[in-house]
Write a structure and sequence with these properties.
- With 624 residues, this protein is of the alpha+beta class.
- It is built from 16 helices and 26 strands.
- The strands form seven sheets. Strands 1, 2, 12, 13, 14, 15 and 26 form a seven-stranded mixed sheet that branches. The protein has a six-stranded antiparallel sheet with strand order 10-20-21-22-19-25. The protein has a four-stranded antiparallel sheet with strand order 3-6-4-5.
- Helix 2 runs parallel beside helix 16, helix 7 packs across helix 16 and helix 13 crosses helix 15.
- It starts with a helix and ends with a helix.
- It binds flavin-adenine dinucleotide and 2-acetamido-2-deoxy-beta-D-glucopyranose (NAG) (4 copies).
- This is GMC oxidoreductase.
- InterPro entries: FAD/NAD-bd_sf, GMC_OxRdtase, GMC_OxRdtase_N, GMC_OxRtase_C.
- Its cofactor is FAD.
- Keywords: FAD, Flavoprotein, Signal.
């Protein structure tokens, strides 16, 4: 606690731009949320000369080693300094959710119970879904994995909206614009070198050691995915962000890239925001930390409500997802005004909540809480989706010391020729999120963590529990709602391939004792066989987790009632209001959303500035 307050005090002056002195100031733009969606956008607008207010509920932790050193990502996601705890449901089936091994309960004495057998009187919280309230958003506590969507994820937006600016080839330009790549050649056309986001990868030379168990596993895996096992040392250095022909159908190994520099320093929108504020050019960016936006303000005299500002409360830990929140704590509301536009970038849970609190959302839901309906927009908070994740976890007889295998592959039962699984294998455990995650199983732990992409179901929701902006919404992912059996079969197929590769690890590692999805010891005791595909599917159905949520305010086709945004991020039915964050994607962009969200942030800045230029042109025209 002490450290937290001291840091905020120390950092406050660095971020206090001149406009901060006048609380009644009107800005050109107000951006709510400084994560991958809002952070880069706010900096771009200020750099273009427009006065911009960036409202962020969290603090600045740029020089706190928990956040600054990317290797501390698990510690960062657990840290109370920035943590927002959302307790989510995975389905409408309460009994199924209770089988999730890391279901979390409030014991009432200030501690959590995590597990299947809660103490008497404990109150069910649900499944933890971490978020970070901090300058830079979740890009400050995530693992920093940098990956790009499939080309079709972008091209699909062109199809939906007719807006050719989303074409995959054009979207790469945004990566090049933000990126300061540290591993590619200067003339590599896939990459940028002058941006604010350092992206690096790691030394792949471990993959040259043919006697290493990790390399033996990799060679077997190469055979299973149709690659040449003699070339694994090259594959371990393949650029995961590279622009290859047929990249989305290429089952292979890669060098994992992260948004960090070579020395392990994390890079995120935080760097860009700080650099913009500190720039001698005195760009007009005002950052208000510890400020919770509670409502968008509208002028309702015209045919469509026009966003003219934001109401917010200031003070630390006002939101009830913040574990430091002290019950009963509240603060007066201040109004901030925007001459041009308001942009919401609170992330996939908070943006739909804020829209609904402001009168934009499904009319029946808003009326239930006495919120006057400005725009009946049924898609707000709906069609929430996420990649399913699960892992194969075991214990070797000795530690497998070196080598993180990164693989993107297609299982034989995938519905298209495209890859459907991202996995990384190494001496770690990752089984999802709960207070205190992950479990350490000792030095012999080994796992392959899998991300299944393109879930067939997009039925999650973010819905209000009250009209109080300090309250959290109700979040239900409705995993496997339809097409679940097919999705699960793909996960099982991937697990079977990965397990088979493990058997190549050789002495002295073998045999592995598998902990899940097919616990070796339990199986042997029961009937002496390995577990069935059906049993594995049941395991993944109850134990799947996720952390790449998107699409709760999605871009969609004209005429689609559930579409919340048009292709320029404008909220349908309103004026002067956009949503720019992970909630805007029509589906999860590939494997990991952080870099893609930064890319659309910069794209959106172009759209906002183009609108400003057009308005200026119109004004000039009027004057003539
Ligand atoms: C533990 C974890 C690990 C992850 N690892 C990876 C990874 O390795 N690679 C990857 O690509 N993705 C990863 N992700 C996902 C990725 O970080 C997110 O998809 C991404 O940050 C989403 O960006 P965003 O701008 O939509 O939202 P966020 O990053 O959530 O940012 C939203 C910001 O808005 C602020 N805010 C919200 N509401 C308000 C309000 N009312 N008023 C003021 N401020 C508000 C929040 O404090 C926050 O700072 C991970 C996520 C988690 C949780
Ligand atoms: C876009 O539409 C065209 C024509 O209908 C179709 O062939 C193509 O597969 C679509 N692409 C995506 C990514 O949806
Ligand atoms: C190669 O791997 C073996 C087995 O793990 C190990 O003993 C040896 O030290 C490694 N060699 C190098 C050069 O790292
Ligand atoms: C609201 O919009 C109308 C035009 O529709 C304008 O005349 C009026 O000044 C606006 N009011 C505020 C408070 O912005
Ligand atoms: C062994 O047990 C598992 C479940 O524990 C079951 O799925 C499998 O069918 C059983 N095999 C046989 C041969 O009974």
């Amino acid at each position: 606690m002490m450290k937290f307050f001291l840091l905020s005090l120390l950092l406050a002056p660095a971020l206090a731009a001149p406009a901060d002195a006048d609380p009644t100031a009107t800005y050109d733009y107000i951006v709510v949320g400084s994560g991958p969606g809002g952070g880069p956008l706010s900096a771009e607008l200020a750099r273009a000369g427009y006065s911009t207010l960036l409202i962020e509920a969290g603090t600045d932790q740029w020089d706190n080693p928990t956040y600054a050193d990317i290797q501390n990502f698990n510690e960062a996601a657990n840290d109370e300094t920035t943590r927002w705890d959302f307790w989510v449901k995975h389905s409408d089936d309460a009994a199924r959710d209770l089988k999730f091994k890391h279901t979390t309960w409030d014991t009432g004495d200030g501690t959590f119970y995590v597990g299947l057998d809660p103490p008497e009187g404990a109150k069910l919280l649900g499944i933890q879904y971490p978020r970070a309230a901090v300058l830079g958003g979740c890009a400050m506590h995530n693992a920093g994995v940098a990956s790009l969507p499939e080309d079709d994820d972008w091209n699909r937006i062109v199809n939906l909206t007719g807006d050719a600016s989303w074409e995959a080839g054009k979207m790469r330009e945004y990566l090049k614009k933000i990126e300061r790549n540290e591993y590619a050649d200067a003339d590599d056309p896939s990459h940028g070198h002058d941006g604010w986001l350092a992206i690096s990868n790691s030394d792949p030379s471990w993959a040259k050691n043919d006697s290493s168990p990790a390399v033996k596993i990799m060679k077997r895996l190469a055979e299973l995915i149709g690659q040449d096992p003699s070339r694994v040392a090259d594959f371990a250095n393949t650029d995961i962000l590279g622009d290859f022909p047929n990249r989305d159908t290429m089952s292979s190994f890669f060098n994992l890239a992260t948004h960090a520099d070579k020395t392990g320093k994390r890079f995120s929108p935080n760097n860009y925001i700080r650099a913009t504020v500190a720039d001698p050019a005195k760009y007009p960016l005002t950052v208000k930390l510890n400020t919770l936006a509670t409502k968008v303000l509208f002028n309702t005299t015209g045919p469509k409500p026009r966003a003219i500002g934001v109401e917010a409360m200031s003070g630390p830990s006002l939101y009830r997802a913040d574990p430091k929140h002290i019950p009963g704590t509240t603060a007066p509301k201040t109004q901030y005004f925007a001459r041009r536009e308001v942009i919401l970038s609170g992330g996939v849970f908070n943006t739909p909540q804020l829209l609904k609190l402001s009168g934009i959302g499904p009319a029946t839901e808003l009326s239930k809480f006495g919120i006057p309906v400005l725009v009946d927009l049924p898609g707000v908070g709906e069609r929430l989706t996420d990649n399913y994740e699960g892992s194969l976890l075991g214990l070797g007889k000795v530690p497998i010391a070196s080598g993180l295998i990164t693989i993107l592959f297609r299982t034989p039962n995938a519905p298209t020729p495209k890859r459907n699984i991202f996995a990384w294998c190494g001496a770690f455990s990752f089984e999802g999120f709960w207070p205190g995650f992950p479990t350490y199983y000792g030095p012999n732990q080994y796992s392959c963590a899998m991300v299944h992409i393109k879930p067939r179901s997009q039925d999650g929701s973010v819905r209000l529990l009250s009209a109080d902006p300090q309250d959290k919404p109700e979040i239900n992912f409705r995993f496997f709602e339809h097409g679940g059996d097919e999705d699960l079969a793909e996960l099982v197929s991937a697990a079977n391939m990965l397990r088979e590769s493990w058997q190549a690890a050789g002495e002295p590692v073998l045999p592995f004792e598998e902990l899940h999805p097919c616990p070796s010891s339990a199986e042997k005791k029961s009937n002496g066989t390995t577990c069935s595909d059906g049993k594995q599917a049941e395991y993944f159905k109850t134990q799947a987790y996720s952390h790449h949520a998107t699409s709760s305010c999605q871009i969609g086709a004209e005429g689609d009632k559930m579409a919340v945004l048009d292709s320029k991020f404008r909220v349908r039915g309103a004026e002067g209001l956009r949503v720019v964050d992970a909630s805007a994607f029509p589906n999860v962009p590939g494997f990991f959303p952080s870099v893609p969200t930064m890319m659309i942030s910069v794209k959106a800045a172009g759209d906002v500035l183009a609108a400003a230029a057009a308005a200026k042109g119109a004004d000039a025209g009027d004057g003539e």
